[in-house]
Design brief:
Elements: E1 9-17, H1 32-43, E2 49-57, H2 61-71, E3 79-87, E4 103-108, H3 114-122, E5 129-131, H4 143-155, H5 168-174, E6 176-178, H6 180-186, E7 196-201, H7 202-207, H8 215-223, E8 227-230, H9 235-247, E9 254-256, E10 277-281, H10 285-293, H11 295-298, E11 299-301, E12 315-321, E13 332-333, E14 338-343, H12 349-360, E15 371-374, E16 379-382, E17 394-399, E18 404-406, E19 421-423, H13 427-438, H14 441-450, H15 454-497, H16 501-521, H17 526-580, H18 584-593, H19 595-607, H20 624-642, H21 650-717, E20 726-734, H22 736-746, H23 752-755, H24 758-761, H25 772-788, H26 798-805, E21 810-818, E22 821-822, H27 828-842, E23 849-852, H28 860-874, E24 880-883, H29 887-892, E25 897-903, E26 917-922, H30 943-950, H31 954-959
Parallel strand pairs: 1-2, 2-3, 7-8, 8-9, 14-24, 14-25, 19-23, 23-24
Antiparallel strand pairs: 1-10, 3-4, 4-7, 5-6, 10-11, 12-13, 12-17, 15-16, 17-18, 20-21, 21-22, 25-26
Length: 969
Amino acid sequence: MENNNRGSVWRKWDLHVHTPTSIYQRFGQDDDETWEKYISDLESLPEHFGVIGINDYLFISGLDRLQNEKKKGRLKNVNLLPVVEFRIEKFAGVQFGALKRINLHVIFSEEVTIETIQSQFLNTLEQSYTLDSGGSWTRAITPQSVEELGKNIKSQIPENELEKYGSDLVEGFNNLNINEAAIFSALKKDCFKDKYLIAIGKTEWGDLKWSDASIATKKSIINSAHIVFTAAESVEAFKKAKDQLTIQKVNNLLLDCSDAHYLSNSNDKDRIGNCHTWIKANPNFEGLRQILFEPEQRIKVQLTEPDFKDDKLVIDHICFNSPGNLFPSSPIKLNKNLNVIIGGKSSGKSILLYNIARTLLADRSNNGPLKFLDTDDNEFKYLYEFSNDPTLFDFKVKLKSGAEQSIHRGDNDPSILADIKYIPQNHLSNLVDRSRKEGNSLKKLIRGLILEESSSNLAYKNFVDTLKLNDSKRNNLIDDYFQILDKLTNLKGELLLKGHDEDLKNNISINQQRIKELNQGSGFSDEDVLKYENFTLEFNSLRIQSGKIINDYQKLKVFHDEISSVLIELEQKKNQLLLNLEVNEIRIEFGDKLKFITDALSISNKNSGLFLLDDQRRLVVDSSIKRSLLTCNERQNELIKLLEPFKLSEESKVQVSILENSIQEDQQKLTEILQLQKEIENHQTALASKHEAIFQSYLDNFKEYEKIIEQLDPRIKSIEGEDDKLEIKGIVRFNFPKFKGVLSDLTNLRSSSVDNLPLFQISNSALSDFDFQQIIDQIFDLFNKIIDGAHHLKRINKQEACKLILKDFFFDHWEVTSEGDIIHNMSTGKASFVLLKLIIKLSTSKAPILIDQPEDNLDNRSVTKDIVSYLRQKKLERQIILVTHNPNIVVNADAENIIIANQKGQNDNDSTSPYKFDYINGALEDSFVKDNNETDILKCMGIRQHIAEIVEGGEDAFKRRELKYSFPN
């Protein structure tokens, strides 16, 4: 079988498969034809099958034949482990039915030869067999002798009962028993040390009632085994069987096996391939041993491959191309779970991780984690730069989906895995330290992690858009406020120039009386004088009315022009929006719903004609304005004719004309005063309304912060758990220092009115608690004092000053606590680890995460307790690649793939490897002692031995974990 060289991977293991030479089997006759069908059946197993345990009763001739077939090139798809099955003596005589008895299986390492199993194990057991009848067995165990035993037993059976019995070989086997103590004793030989495992059949053990033997005896036999076998009807049946063992408090390391006696095309349960046990290990005996130490991590019984990950989110392999033998050109294959890179100082560990990050990371900006500022030339550069010429150096990453990318992709070219996370060495601790100085970096990181989830991100984008809209609206309101204020000031100035309204009324009354007297002196009757007065009064009223119509026209025209401008802008924005919509159905629906903007613009354009004037400045299009003016003008002309008969003498005419003009002027002024007073009142109302709207907008912003924190709360709650007591709390904060800085820039600090402002006097930080009402009250007061001129402003007008003090100084702060400690108060090491947990827990992407030495700044206890448990959990969800010097991370996190890095000539190690930087990878269970004749340092020992030699703590770390690893004495 091809070695994918990516460490411990999930494969199906079926450790209970019989052969055509087995005492009990249903493959067919023990002949070449049956064997060909059998071998072909094994070769046709699905590709995820990796190991088959060749499990025959008493004999190993079937295994011998299969091993010879492998030597001829057959069975390349699976590895074979020798398994010998016995019936143990302890429960002889208990009625289980045909072949339903407690069977014990010995699983041998593939390193133990058939000759050794036969000579040092099976042959030594021959004097330990007993018969069901109680007698001793004195002959060698061979198929012929067992068959002869069965024949003798059957000869004593009445002929009419023989049909109930099996073949001579089966019946001979049924009557042979062995004491398990003899088996254990035979396995104590040096040749079997750490080279065997004991398994016992669960079904047969379970069929034995507790009353049939002592409880202690029944428990001892299963607890003395390493593994328990079962051939479950289904995955659900397997889970029930395992639960039973757990409840009974006995060995529950249960494996599902086929117990294959039939070919795969059979409908019988016990057929080749009907096995659901997945083991994550090298496909050999040493890999199998790992299930004793990490059963929960290494064994799964299910239909599909465990730890499923999307192919497009898994790096399959990485590859250097450096013609100068700087790096090896053979691919380094990665595991889909946890990959750990170890090596001596400057061995190329971080270089390997960095090149993966540089190839895939979307952020290649100067502020990103890939570049540094070279102070020699003040230029931003990549940390490791071997050559910009792909022919001299290249590094490629290939995903499991088949997508591939070179490190030489353009900075603006998209990444094939843009969501990858990269945490360089000391990145988190530097972030913590920088945040304590600047106070912003950590907040941005935490918020960014929260917003990785799409619905939360959308909600926050809408929140930001709303804030921007509110800010723009508030600034517009302030502009409107000052526009109204300026207009109000002008109106009040105009009113002062118009005179006093009571004086004007007096003058009008006096002049009207004088005209009356002149008319009476000219011989007009009282009736004529009354007519004259009425005509004159109407004429003056019509002049005032004409003035009002013209004023209304001007106001409407200005408003219409504003509406047209706004509608034109909205129409352009609408058209751009529709162009950007990607779903045609949505574009059509909302194009129709937004048609009202186009319709409104069309109406506005049509209404433009209502304000057109001809060369004589007369309205062109018929409207109420035109009709009203025309009516006024026509009546005025009629009144002029009606007043003709009342002409006086020349002297009287002059006097009356002067008086009438004076009356008209005074009436005009009085009308204008009333109009101004009304406009001033309206503007004062509008000013108060704008003032209220400005501060309502400010309040709306604050409420938006509260709203977004509430909206993101489910996202926060989803990552909190009792396992790590990690809590995130959203709080609205006010940036006091920033506000005070703005206040300092726009006002004279020596102004007593500023000094008395509590907001300016307090020394709150940006994270201090605050009373929102107190803040809004003081800003309200400051706003009014700026308007009134109580503050002496520096090089800025009142309008801009008001915008600055009403700028949004609020922000959403995400306070992180772990075990009662706030992250800002933690040690750098603890805060860094909390950040790492946040990055992993809050990240919704299942893209790989690259971490360089996460254990930095943490004590060994924290590494063991925190990082290790986190890695064990999170590697099941996403691929992890990390650099470490800590043995706890390598060993206790049960890393699937270990990559050993070495630089030639570094760390006092001289290697004959042709490469300056070289790498080798494999599983923790890859083990062989150092070969002093091998001069290539990476090839001279197993992965396990490299770990013991390289990582801090060395072999002592493994000795403390002897339940997981063993070393030669």
